[in-house]
């Protein structure tokens, strides 16, 4: 409730400052998506909280709207999910509820937002503002809404943005994915001053180069999972402070696209470096029925070891992305990883097919092929192989 109250106050302050008239409200785009879902795990999770299960039906929905109130733009995106097995996956979240006022090159924003920074296909090391929604996927790509106030300035070949993030959201841990031990709902923090984070981002364009430079200082979104004593029967999330310098860049080199994400900074009084460098190459000689095919290779390095934020720290990712069908109404994405330290790897496959203007079918499989005991990330989730089906109705 505190999050919602602060977001509402921020939006109200902005709306009063710009003095919009309700009669001037225009909705340019709006949509509603409702999906029946079913997630099947390869095996039950006997160490998870409560009763183990290997199949979970459910429903989820999302509503989007964009428009203007007077001379102020607004965006709204609401998400909700219900799971028949897992109480922690019965929730609602405001992904976006923001106002943006623009005058000439200056912009002012406030509310709740979901931001995306980065260019990589596998792991986005510079995407640091939002908390990951682990209830949707263990790879942390889905994000929860974040309260913010922003100030932006556009210039000839880019934009500069300053963010203030007044509140901090803890990560929610569902029954699955299970991490070998239950995860405590009482977290620890390196400092009691959680919230009040700041971020700065500059986006620049120059010919075939697109680059983003950023800075973030505040509480890290990804907690360390620790045992408070050798005999503890649960993990305790421990949120540390972090300071990051960020870089993401995309360069068009003839037919290929070169990608880079990198960050350096300090955590727990130690410096660190993490980067994801990759290449995407389109294939033009395609058989009939395939509209687009791109091959992807990326390498991730993170020298923080057990303190790393993601599923990989010395990993190679090989994958492809394609669209096919008579009118390109189907798409497929597949990525396989390989860890050079532990020889662990996992497979991430996704397929989407549009049945009509209103219905589409989506499936995803996440398979952990090999995870040794020395793999700090894959070994705890080695039993979390699953396949998920979704039937969407959108209008």
Automatic annotation (TrEMBL):
Keyword Signal appears in the UniProt entry: yes
Organism encoding this protein: Microbulbifer taiwanensis
First and last residue of the signal peptide: 1-23
Protein name listed in UniProt: Alginate export domain-containing protein
Keyword terms, alphabetized: Signal
């Amino acid at each position: 409730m505190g999050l919602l109250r602060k977001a509402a106050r921020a939006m109200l302050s902005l709306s009063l400052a710009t003095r919009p008239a309700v009669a001037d409200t225009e909705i340019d785009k709006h949509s509603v998506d409702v999906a029946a879902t079913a997630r099947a795990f390869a095996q039950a999770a006997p160490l998870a909280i409560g009763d183990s299960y290997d199949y979970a039906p459910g429903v989820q929905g999302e509503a989007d709207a964009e428009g203007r109130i007077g001379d102020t733009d607004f965006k709204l995106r609401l998400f909700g999910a219900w799971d028949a097995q897992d109480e922690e996956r019965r929730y609602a979240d405001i992904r976006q509820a923001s106002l943006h006022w623009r005058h000439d090159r200056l912009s002012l924003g406030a509310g709740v937002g979901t931001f995306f920074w980065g260019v990589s296909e596998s792991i986005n090391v510079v995407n640091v503002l939002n908390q990951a929604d682990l209830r949707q996927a263990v790879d942390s790509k889905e994000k929860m809404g974040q309260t913010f106030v922003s100030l932006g300035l556009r210039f000839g070949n880019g934009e500069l943005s300053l963010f203030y993030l007044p509140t901090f959201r803890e990560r929610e841990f569902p029954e699955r994915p299970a991490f070998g031990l239950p995860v405590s709902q009482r977290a620890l923090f390196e400092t009691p001053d959680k919230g009040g984070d700041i971020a700065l981002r500059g986006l620049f364009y120059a010919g075939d180069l697109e680059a983003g430079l950023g800075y973030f200082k505040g509480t890290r979104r990804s907690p360390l999972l620790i045992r408070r004593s050798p005999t503890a029967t649960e993990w305790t999330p421990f949120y540390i402070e972090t300071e990051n310098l960020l870089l993401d860049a995309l360069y068009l080199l003839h037919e290929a696209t070169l990608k880079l994400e990198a960050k350096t900074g300090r955590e727990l009084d130690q410096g660190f470096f993490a980067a994801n460098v990759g290449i995407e190459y389109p294939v033009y000689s395609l058989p009939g029925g395939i509209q687009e095919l791109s091959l992807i290779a990326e390498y991730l390095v993170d020298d923080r070891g057990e303190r790393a934020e993601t599923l990989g720290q010395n990993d190679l990712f090989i994958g492809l992305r394609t669209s096919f069908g008579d009118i390109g109404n189907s798409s497929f994405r597949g990525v396989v990883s390989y860890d050079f330290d532990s020889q662990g790897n996992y497979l991430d496959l996704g397929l989407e097919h549009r049945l009509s203007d209103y219905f589409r079918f989506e499936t995803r499989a996440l398979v952990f092929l090999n995870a040794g005991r020395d793999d700090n990330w894959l070994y705890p989730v080695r039993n979390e192989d699953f396949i998920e089906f979704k039937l969407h109705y959108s209008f």
